[in-house]
Amino acid sequence: MSNFRFAAIFMQKRKQLNVTQEDIARYVGISRAAVSKWEKGQSYPDISLLPKLAAYFNVSIDDLLGYEPQMTEQRILKTYADLAAKFTKLPYEEVDKQIEELVKEYFSCFPLLLKMALLYANYFNLAQNKEEATEKIQSLCIRVKEFSGDYKLVNEATIIEALSYILQEEPQKVLALLGEDAKVQLGAEQLIAAAQTMLGETEKAKEIYQVNQYQYLLGMLGNASEMLMLEIANATYFEQIVTRVEAVLDTFQIEKLNVNTALVFYLRAASGFAVQNRTEEALRCIARYVKICMHMDFPVRITGDAYFYLLEDWVKREVILNAQSPRDDESIKKSLYESVVGNPMFESLKEHAQFKSLVTNLQHHLRIGG
Question: Rounded to a whole number, what is the largest CA-CA distance in the chain?
Fold first, then answer.
């Protein structure tokens, strides 16, 4: 009961009613000394007395104890950020224990459970026991799906659970969970926007259309980045993907809207060109990757622009469910650097003068130790 605020709340309520410790002792049938210990925080009332005390003060038992079973969105975000930062400073096992204690305390706060599952996924590479880490992700997601009753949380939990199976290299479980084929997009967002328009909520409808465009745009670019790695042997088609996607990236200024999407694309494109022994094109894509890194703002966040001018409010509301939640800045910087210097597909480029120069510039800008 260390997180309860019973002593302070009890004293405050007693003084508000202008009653003495003796009055309350007589009401519940105990000694005044016992009540005095409650107010000093030296002991707590027997559990059987809590309903009677709560009724006396006309509050719920949770309010009397100062127990809050739910966290606010802002507190969840701060908790996530604090724990993410600890992963870079403390042993994984120590942070893991803190997460376990937090989950026990807020086992019915489903947005928090989902965020902790995502946290485990984002720092999966630090876990020594990978099987245990994936089991924790899955158990949190399954609890959210079974008990939250919120379709948004359920959908997010399903995606994160599927991600855990990818991390565990169990593709059949992913297909069993999500299905084996692409699903027809039913356009629910368009219907919602149309309904909002009918109700005269024009600004809300515009926001929905903008958010829908944004998500489909990122989805298309993400799919194209994944396709690159499957089309390396088909050099003509590979180059066509690169040409078309670069045009979209530049047209919509994706590196400002969602920098990770642009970085992943250029890294994949460079990797493919390197495998194809197209050194000049590979170095061009690495140079673009480094340039984007050097113009990144930290902390990394999703933003709108002149075209997606209604995106900001949606991001603020939905960030708690965002499956692309960033890790801490230091981890991101190390990952950006390692994605180039530790990429086995760049082995043929490592002695090239331009590659060395790009790596040095990236290391210097991100302040990565040599």
Answer: 88
Same domain, 239 and 329: yes
117 and 80 in a single domain? The answer is: yes
Fill in the DSSP letter of residue 327: -
Tell me the CB-side half-sphere exposure of residue 283, using CA atoms within 13 A: 15
What is the number of structural domains in the chain?
Answer: 3
**Given 65, 85, 115, which residue is the final one in a domain?**
65
Written as six digits, the tokens of 296 are: 């990144």
Indicate whether 2 pLDDT > 50. no
Euclidean distance between CA atoms 202 and 49, whole angstroms:
54
Kindly state whether residue 213 falls inside one of the protein's structural domains: yes
Pairwise CA distance, residues 308 & 321, whole Å: 20
Same domain, 238 and 344: yes
Interior/surface letters 254-269, b for 16+ CB within 10 angstroms, e for the rest:
bbebbbbbbbbbbbbb
User: Which residue, 251, 343, 238, is CA-closest to 289?
Assistant: 343
Same domain, 106 and 238: no
- Compute the distance between CA of residue 261 and CA of residue 259 in angstroms, rounded to an integer: 5
Scanning the structure block, which residue is given the tokens 């084929």?
181
Task: State pLDDT tens for residues 135-177.
Answer: 999 999 999 999 999 988 999 999 999 999 999 999 999 999 9
- What's the pTM? 0.70
Sign for the CA dihedral angle at 5, 10, 16, 21 comes to negative
